Amino acid sequence: MSEPVKILVTGAAGFIGSNLVDRLLAEGNIVLGVDNLSTGRREFLADADKNSNFRFFERDLLDEKALHGILSEEVDTVVHLAANADVRDGLKHPRKDLEQNTIVTWNVLEAMRRVNVRKIAFSSTGSVYGEAQKIPTPEDCPFPVQTSLYGASKLAGESLISAYAEGYDLQASIFRFVSILGERYTHGHVIDFVRSLYRDTSKLRVLGDGSQRKSYLYVGDCVNAMLTIMRHKTKNKVEVFNLGTDEYVNVNQSIDVICEELKVEPKRMYTGGDRGWIGDNPFIFLDCSKLRKIGWKPTRSIRDSVRTTVRYLQKNDWLMQ
Ligand SMILES: NC(=O)c1ccc[n+]([C@@H]2O[C@H](COP(=O)([O-])OP(=O)(O)OC[C@H]3O[C@@H](n4cnc5c(N)ncnc54)[C@H](O)[C@@H]3O)[C@@H](O)[C@H]2O)c1
User: Fold this and answer.
1) Would you say the CB of residue 120 lies under 6 angstroms from ligand 1?
2) What digits encode the pLDDT tens for the residues 138-165?
3) Does 27 share its domain with 159?
4) Is the CB of 39 under 6 A from ligand 1?
C-alpha cells in the first residue's frame, strides 16, 4: 500500500467510479467524488458517504467552472472516468460523445492547469482500435479508421491529454478497457439480456448472429489494474495500458452462462449479420502483456465475471427498472 493521498474521481457515482472510490477509501485516501448523476447512482456511494474522508459534489463537468472551488493543488491525482459510456447509441445523438467524452475531458484538463494539478488517469477504451489489424491488439497497434463516435471521442480525449502532458508537464495514465463486468454493472449486454429475460423467459432477441467475440474484465480486477498503473514509476509523461483478460467469449457463450444462472431456455432470435450495430467490432481481444509486466494479473475468468454480474443484478433488480 502506498502513502494516502487526496484524489478527485470524476464519474464517482458510476459503475467503475464507485468501485474505485470504495477501494481508495479503504486504503485510507481522501477522495473527492464528482458526478452529475446522469447515469450514475447516488446509492452506489452509500458506503463512501459513511467515511469522513469522502466528499461528493453533484456537478456537470460540461460546465467549464464545475471544478472551481473543488479542485485545488492539494489534489495529487484526478481520475477522470465521467463520460457517456454507451457505445451503441452514438449515432442517435452525435453531439453527446463529443461533449461528454471530449469537451468534458478538456474542461477537466483546463481545471487542472488552473490550479497546477499534474497527474491524470483517464478511462479510454479498446474501441479506439476500431477493427484492429492485429489480434490480440497491443497498445502500439496502428489505428485503422475509427468505427464509432464513442471510440473517436475517447481517442480525441487521449490526444488532448497527451498534448497537455507534453505542453504543461502533466503525468498521464491512459487505460484502454475491454468491457467491464461485476458489482454495480448498469449497462451492456448482460443487463440487456437479463432485463429482457425478466420480462419474457421464452425468447431472447440477439443483435447480430451471436458469433461476435469479445473480451471482458471483472470490475475488481479493473480497479486493481488502474491502481497498479497509477502507482507504477515511469519517466514517460504518458503511459497507455490495455486492460483486459487473456481470453474472450462469443455472445452465444455469454448467453449460455446467463441462461444457466437464470435457469431459463429462451428461443434465441438473431437479428443477423456478423455485428450487432453499425460500429460494433466483431472481435475485441487486447494484448495486456504490458500490464502483466508491471505486476498485475486478473483473478476471475470471463464466465465467472458474467455469473457474478447476473447474481448481482438478481439481488439488485431495482437497477433493471
Ligand atoms: N464499463 C465499461 O465496460 C467500460 C469500457 C471501456 C471504457 N469505459 C469507460 O470507463 C468510464 C466509466 O464507465 P462506467 O462503466 O463506470 O460508466 P457509468 O456510466 O456508470 O459512469 C460514468 C459516470 O459519469 C457520470 N457523468 C457523465 N457525464 C458527466 C458530466 N458531464 N459531468 C459529471 N458526471 C458525468 C455519470 O453520471 C456516471 O456516473 C467511462 O469513461 C467509460 O467510457 C467503461
Assistant:
1) no
2) 999 998 789 999 999 999 999 999 999 9
3) yes
4) yes
